[in-house]
Specification:
Structural class: mainly alpha
Oligomer: single chain
Number of strands: 0
Order of helices and strands: HHHHHHHHHH
Strand content: under 5%
Shape: elongated
Radius of gyration: 21 Å
Helix content: over 70%
Length: about 190
């Protein structure tokens, strides 16, 4: 409890120390598991700035209890954070999505953050229909998340992309032909020198 209070007050170092102490010397398994989840979160923050450790802790919690939906959500968050902070590998977004789906097997989660994060992953995977669906669900559950604003921005982006594609980005056909002629064919090797 003290770690949560310190986190909310902005004393991330003391919160980290409290959670670390609970993991090392805490009471029951539930308290240690919750403290480990919080440590994973702290390592994703700008304080911890250690997505590798966040992911390691998230995987450790799952290995102890595969049925804990909160731990699956935490693993999804760790993978999403790892993607943005370190890997930029789309497979990490797919891993995040799988973890989020494991945390909501029945499809009736009332956790607005889970839906918001799923929507974010879908957005970066360019699966806009699912992104809109998840963000709208997040907005239904918690209007403070401003998920509707994200939906509006995404709709605007998709309309702009459609417009640019349909008019070839306002490039004259002679210019487009010159750009395409300068590009190597799909079969040519690409050299980075």
């Amino acid at each position: 409890q003290l770690g949560n209070c310190m986190w909310k007050k902005g004393d991330v170092q003391l919160a980290h120390d409290c959670w670390q102490n609970t993991v090392m010397h805490g009471g029951d398994e539930g308290e240690r598991k919750e403290a480990t989840r919080k440590l994973s979160m702290a390592f994703r923050s700008s304080f911890g700035n250690n997505p590798d450790e966040s992911l390691r802790l998230a995987k450790e919690i799952i290995s102890r209890d595969m049925a804990d939906t909160n731990s699956w959500t935490n693993l999804g968050n760790a993978y999403m954070s790892y993607f943005f902070a370190s890997s930029l590998d789309r497979e990490d977004l797919f891993r995040a999505l799988k973890a989020y789906h494991r945390s909501d097997l029945d499809g009736h989660s009332q956790d607005p953050d889970l839906h918001f994060n799923k929507g974010t992953v879908y957005r970066y995977l360019e699966d806009y229909p699912n992104a809109v669906m998840e963000l709208e669900r997040a907005h239904e559950l918690d209007t403070e998340l401003k998920a509707a604003l994200h939906v509006e921005q995404m709709v605007k982006l998709v309309h702009e992309m459609h417009s640019m594609i349909s008019c070839h980005c306002n490039i004259k056909s002679s210019r487009l032909s010159a750009v395409l002629a300068a590009m190597p064919s799909a079969n040519d090797p690409i050299s980075v020198a």
